[in-house]
UniProtKB/TrEMBL annotation:
InterPro entries: Transmembrane_26
Transmembrane segments: 12-36, 42-62, 257-277
Glycosyltransferase keyword on record: no
Matching Pfam families: Tmem26
Official protein name in the record: Transmembrane protein 26
Highest taxon of source: Eukaryota
Keyword terms: Membrane, Transmembrane, Transmembrane helix
Upper taxonomic lineage: Eukaryota, Metazoa, Spiralia, Lophotrochozoa, Mollusca
Length: 372
């Protein structure tokens, strides 16, 4: 048993170390590219965030033995802190220098093969690999409390979100958008907010079975911290709604009616409607079916019985609480009534039984006479 736990512990540490090495390598490449295109060593100051990745890795590997947090990934968060400012710099440079070309060389067998990569190709490749590294790293990281089913669902969800986030950058490719610097900043800010959702574990839920609070609070926690509400709320406020606002603003102010813009704004509207419908359906189901029944008290019982009496139900139960609270007298009165009803029922039953016995006796005598 100890050997199995040691192997599992070493595997967790190895997985956490490999993922952080991949993130560090990609972060250094992005920083190097920023220094090249900006032609200034000043941007190496972003390497401070690389140090944050190292510190976070030490905390997770040494203190937590490679186990990630339950609700979010600190590794992806620190990785995003390095790459988001760097991608900002690359996009702003592309906005001011759209036609710059960079040349690199590969020396193989005494021949130089020139490879021409313009800045747009570099930026597009780094942005794509940034999101792909997030998904691949989330796959390699230790699962922790996540089951394989939840992890696979999380990876599929992240792939879909990565496609939407990448498609959002098509707005910057529009010539009219590039001319508006404030709109470019707004698009980059919206994109940065959407990247934050990759740090959350959108398939994890709160386990309310061990909660010792009241049933009503437990039910509220089940609703608000359930997988559906948790995931839909983040998707609405970090992706679909901001993307819809930015695309609608772009169409309204710059009259951009390209096929991709119209398609994606329609997609945002449909997804928002579906997400709100999903949230409302979860709330309706929980509150109508599983919401705890209101306890019956003396006051509510008295009010209900009086209301029943006024509606003409034939039962005068309006003073039931007074009868019950009148002490031994009220109790004796109800007891005598019950004894009277019991005696009447008993006498009726005995009369019916005697009549049945007499009829059976007469039929038996008639049969005997016929036989003779």
């Amino acid at each position: 048993m100890n050997s199995d736990s040691d192997v599992r512990l070493k595997a967790h540490i190895f997985q956490a170390l490999i993922v952080r090495c991949i993130y560090l390598l990609h972060s250094v490449i992005v920083l190097w590219r920023v220094v090249i295109v900006r032609d200034s060593d000043y941007f190496w100051i972003y390497s401070v965030f690389v140090g944050i990745i190292v510190l976070e890795g030490l905390v997770i590997i040494v203190k937590r033995k490679g186990v990630e947090f339950k609700w979010f990934s600190s590794c992806i968060l620190t990785y995003s802190l390095v790459n988001v400012p760097s991608i900002w710099q690359l996009e702003l440079f592309r906005n001011t220098n759209p036609s710059t070309t960079n040349t690199t060389s590969i020396d193989t067998s005494n021949s130089v093969i020139p490879i021409y990569l313009n800045d747009e190709t570099w930026i597009f490749g780094l942005e794509q690999t940034f999101l792909l590294c997030i998904i691949f790293g989330r796959w390699l990281l230790p699962k922790g409390s996540l089951s394989r089913d939840k992890l696979s669902s999380l990876l599929l969800l992240l792939i879909g979100k990565a496609c939407d986030v990448t498609d959002f950058f098509t707005l910057i490719n529009e010539t009219k958008v590039r001319a508006d610097t404030n709109l470019v900043y707004a698009i980059l800010s919206t994109w940065s907010v959407s990247v934050v959702q990759f740090t959350f574990v959108l398939t994890e839920t709160e386990n309310a079975s061990n909660n010792k609070s009241s049933r009503r609070i437990t039910q509220l926690q089940k609703v608000f911290l359930g997988t559906d509400v948790w995931c839909c709320t983040i998707s609405v406020f970090m992706e679909e709604l901001p993307f819809l606002i930015m695309r609608a603003y772009t169409i309204a102010t710059h009259n951009i009616t390209s096929y991709s813009t119209l398609f994606f704004i329609t997609k945002n509207v449909l997804l928002l409607l579906m997400l709100f419908y999903r949230i409302s359906s979860v709330f309706c189901e929980e509150f109508e079916i599983h919401w705890p029944v209101v306890p019956i008290t003396k006051e509510s019982w008295s009010h209900d019985t009086r209301q029943t009496s006024r509606e003409g139900n034939g039962l005068d139960l309006g003073n039931l609480d007074e009868q019950l609270s009148s002490g031994p007298t009220g109790i004796n009165t109800r007891s005598n009534s019950l004894h009277t009803i019991n005696s009447i029922v008993s006498s009726t039953v005995s009369t019916k039984l005697r009549s049945c016995a007499e009829e059976t006796k007469k039929e038996t005598q008639s049969i005997e006479i016929l036989q003779i």
